[in-house]
Amino acid sequence: MRKEKVLIVEDNPQNMKLLEMLLRAKDYILLKAYDGEEALAMAIREQPDLIVMDMQLPKMSGLEVTKQLRQTLVFSHTPIIALTAYAMRGDKEQFMEAGCNAYLSKPINTRELPVIIDRMLQEHRENSA
Ligand code: MN
Questions:
Q1: Sheet of 29-33, strand order
Q2: In terms of CATH architecture, what is 5-128?
Q3: Which of 46, 102, 47, 103 is nearest to 75 (CA)?
Q4: How many Å lie between the centroid of ligand 1 and the Cα of residue 61?
Q5: Of the four, 13, 57, 106, 126, which is 20 to 30 A from 83 by CA?
Q6: Beta strands in 4-88 (DSSP E)
Q7: pLDDT tens digits for range 57-80
Q8: What spacing in Å lies between the alpha carbon of 15 and ligand 1's midpoint?
Q9: How far apart are CA 104 and CA 30, in angstroms?
Q10: In sequence order, which residues have a C-beta less than 8 Å from that of residue 90 and are 6 or more positions away?
Q11: Gap from CA of 16 to ligand 1 centroid (Å)
Q12: What average pLDDT does this structure show over 118-128?
């Protein structure tokens, strides 16, 4: 089986390091982007199998990146996991409406996130098989 590509989008270096550590042991190809514009460009170029996306990003918000990706057919079903530091009332609804498949508030739950990623990749494989 080919290795699956996971794109991590996070502008905070410590969080990026943590996410990398959590996912390093897995057999994924890890891609990293540090702002919204880079995320969009990299997603289009690399076509990742799953995206973990911080919502608060420089240049373009995670919400905007998600909306733009969902407008293209290639990304109509790519699992997108939203991360956010400021969970405000109505945020979850807004993220899900924009096309995120899951929503996690920070601090990052180090046990939960890898499990969710595994499960979503599996579902994605089954749906596209
Ligand atoms: Mn951020």
A1: 29-33, 5-9, 50-54, 80-84, 102-105
A2: 3-Layer(aba) Sandwich (3.40)
A3: 47
A4: 9
A5: 126
A6: 5-9, 29-33, 50-54, 80-84
A7: 999 999 999 999 999 999 999 999
A8: 9
A9: 20
A10: none
A11: 10
A12: 92
Residues recorded for the chain: 129
Strand partners for 30? 6
Is-contact 118 111, C-beta < 8 A? no
Quote the ligand 1 centre to 11 CA distance (angstroms): 5
Amino acid at 84: T
User: What's the pLDDT at 58?
Assistant: 97
CA of 6 to the centre of ligand 1 (A): 18
Instruction: Give 3 Cα–ligand 1 centroid separation in angstroms.
Output: 27
Residues 6+ apart with CB under 8 A from 44: 72
Burial 24-56 (b: 16+ CB within 10 A, else e): eeeebeebebbbbebbbebbeeeebbbbbbbbb
Kindly report the average pLDDT of the chain as a whole number.
93
pLDDT for 4 equals 95
**Tokens standing for 50?**
């799953």
